[in-house]
Amino acid sequence: PVKTSNSAGTVTFATAGSDSRTTQLFVNLADNDELDWFSGDGEENSQHVVFGRLLDGAEAVERIHGAPRRDEAPATPVKILAVAVAWPSPEAVKRVLAPEPGPRVA
User: Fold this and answer.
1) Cβ 46 vs Cβ 75: under 8 Å
2) Vertex 73 angle, CA 20 and 81, to 5°
C-alpha cells in the first residue's frame, strides 16, 4: 500500500483554482488519500500540498474542530495566538524525501 502524504496531523493548503488568489490552510484530522497530489490526472490532480506536520497541539485542533458551527465556520471566531515552527534534522528530511515504491503522476 502507498503511504498517504495527506495523513492525519499533516498541515496542508488548498486553492480555489489555478487563477485564484485564495487559499485555505488546514490540518488533516484523518488520512485523506484522495487529497494527495498524485491521486489524479490532469485537471483532477489534487492541489493539496503538504508542507508540514503537527508535532504538538492536537488537542487544540480537536477543540477547534468540535466548536459550535454556523455553516462551515465556527459560530464564534477562533484565534490562534501562537504557532511554533520546528525544523527537522537533515536525516529526517532524507527519510521524508526518500522515494516511495510505486507509480506517481507528476
Assistant:
1) no
2) 90
